[in-house]
Amino acid sequence: MSKKIMNCVIIGSGPAGYSAAIYAARADLNPILFVGFQPGGQLTVTTDVDNYPGFPIGISGNELMENCKKQALRFNTLIIHKTITEVYLSNQKGGVHFINIENKENIESKGIIIATGSRPKFLGLDKEKKFIGLGVSFCATCDGYFHKGKDVAVVGGGDTALEEASYLSKICKNVYLFVRKNYFRASKALQNRILKKKNINIFFCYQVIEIMGDRFLEGIKIMNNKDKNTKILFISGLFISIGHTPNTELFKNQLNLDKNGYIIVERGGTSTNKPGVFAAGDVQDPIYRQAITSAGTGCMAALDLERYLYLY
Ligand SMILES: Cc1cc2nc3c(=O)[nH]c(=O)nc-3n(C[C@H](O)[C@H](O)[C@H](O)COP(=O)(O)OP(=O)(O)OC[C@H]3O[C@@H](n4cnc5c(N)ncnc54)[C@H](O)[C@@H]3O)c2cc1C
User: Does the record's keyword annotation contain Oxidoreductase (predicted)?
Assistant: First the structure.
């Protein structure tokens, strides 16, 4: 057990965590970064990342995150391949927080940057995970362009699904929107917007029951929930928009979370309701959920922590 009080513990190894580490390390905060159950974060399950600036011909998600890791190491970030299992967050300004590693040892730190991300919800179908980046997607902004001029499907009836369908309708030939219930959960304004789009075809009371294709997605089998009739639809992209779960189980009862479990941060910043605890990336962002916004808020969190440590 280490008795030394650290300045900066970063929980998470996605774009937010590594960006925070690079800034914190260059400010001499000697950060320790815990990698967690998904080293490199969500981008490691995708193929090409085409929308991260600085890579004119794109870069694979794994290579991008490996580069981030190397950059953090270059400035002597201590990277630990373990998961945080419990935290005790102080209410005092300048207070010390306790961080438990895999139910074994504790470390103490005046500052914590939470970058634990989120995870998309799955339909639970065969090939759904295998075809991520090969036709199956959880993000129209990220992958819509790969399906330019082609037919795609969106699953979901909430705000995000309708926004994804609306975004895709500008790029793709036809968008098929499958809603399990016979109504939308999305706002009226969004419903009105998509009802005006000629190339969005809405199917209420339908669900996707099979993902088809050998090496990549070629089509889907859909079923009408009322009469149980099935159909096959040939599409190049399937966008699953049934929600994300932020990785905030650790912080329940200690940090202010919104109704969906996202950490609430100060507007325009990264401070949480506990002094010295900052949050960055998808874990505090139910709206944008991009690598670049995660990296941006990771940078903000490190700068916010540096200022906090200077004051306390
Ligand atoms: C399939 C797919 C494709 C995508 N494609 C793109 C794209 O092309 N462009 C784009 O901009 N965005 C894309 N995104 C979104 C992008 O991946 C996320 O916005 C981004 O990764 C969020 O970064 P983050 O650092 O907040 O968290 P994440 O990347 O989610 O990383 C979270 C990290 O926290 C760690 N962690 C969680 N709990 C603990 C714990 N208890 N202890 C220690 N560590 C913990 C995990 O191990 C992980 O390393 C894609 C997402 C998916 C799922």
Answer: yes
Rounded CA separation 128/115 (Å):
26
Return the pLDDT at 1: 46
Q: Which atom of ligand 1 is nearest to the CA of 14?
A: 25
Q: Same CATH fold, 122-240 and 5-119+244-311? A: yes
At residue 2, does pLDDT exceed 60?
no
Question: Mind listing the pLDDT tens digit for each residue in 222-255?
Answer: 999 999 999 999 999 999 999 999 999 999 999 9
- Tell me how far the alpha carbon of residue 42 lies from the centroid of ligand 1, in angstroms: 3
Specify the pairing of strand 200-204 against strand 174-179.
parallel
Among 3.20.20.70, 3.40.1180.10, 3.40.50.1220, 3.50.50.60, name the CATH number for the domain at 5-119+244-311.
Answer: 3.50.50.60
CATH dotted code for 122-240: 3.50.50.60
Question: Is-catalytic flag, 139?
Answer: yes
Cα(24)–Cα(11) distance, integer angstroms: 13
Give CA–CA dist 160/281, Å, rounded: 18
Options 8, 68, 142, 299, the catalytic residue: 142
Rounded Cα distance, 203 and 211, in Å: 17
Mutate which of 32, 77, 102, 139 for ligand 1 pocket (most atoms within 8 A of beta carbon): 139
DSSP string, 123-145: ---TTTTTTBTTTEES-HHHHGG
Atom of ligand 1 nearest to the CA of 51: 9
- In DSSP terms, which residues pair with 269 in a beta bridge? none
Q: How many CB atoms lie within 10 A of CB 279?
A: 31
